[in-house]
Amino acid sequence: MRVPSHSNLEFLRERFDGRPFRVSDAVAAGVSRTTLHRLRATGELATVGRGVVQLPDGGMGLLSELAVVSARAPRGTICLNSALAFWDLSDEIPEQVHVAVPRGMHRPSIDQPATRVHVFDARTFAIERQQAHTDADEPFWIYSPERSVIDAMRMARWVGRDTALHALRRYIAQPRSDAARLAELARELGGSAQLRPALEALLS
């Protein structure tokens, strides 16, 4: 199905609701690559990543890099430093977007925005994976605060030991923290050895 040329912008606005989207998704929806190229050339579409575009009036939002990465890696999940920052478990502003993909899946190469792709165990990949939204209501997939803390502890070599411990302390200080759930997740994900001594020290 081809979309009439006069209604391409209206169609894209309605179909993607102002969010970043892949060129391939627009083509699959019926908009030709020639039309998309023309819209970019005239400034009616903005390039926000390799193969990812957005209507300029879409309202990028403070966290749109997460949405752009999610558009490039639909099965990926925002993780580690980026997830800690989103959940306010870290004061760090990551220089790269950290995204995980399951082992055995194609590992995307994303250079805009700067992105680090991590490969996680496919058997536990979906645990605590949930959808969130940027301040412009752009959707993306991210690990929960609890899993983000456990992943930080068990992969401190990537996150930084101090950053991981700070995230754990900040999580435990929250009114709705759940130490029992942390311990359960650590067992599921293989992070008990890293979590237990730090958690016991905080709770003693």
From TrEMBL:
AbiEi antitoxin N-terminal domain location, by residue? 16-56
Q: Which domain of life is it from?
A: Bacteria
Matching InterPro entries, A to Z? AbiEi_N (IPR025159)
What protein name applies here? AbiEi antitoxin N-terminal domain-containing protein
- What organism is listed for this UniProt entry? Conexibacter woesei (strain DSM 14684 / CCUG 47730 / CIP 108061 / JCM 11494 / NBRC 100937 / ID131577)
Taxonomic lineage from the root: Bacteria, Bacillati, Actinomycetota, Thermoleophilia, Solirubrobacterales
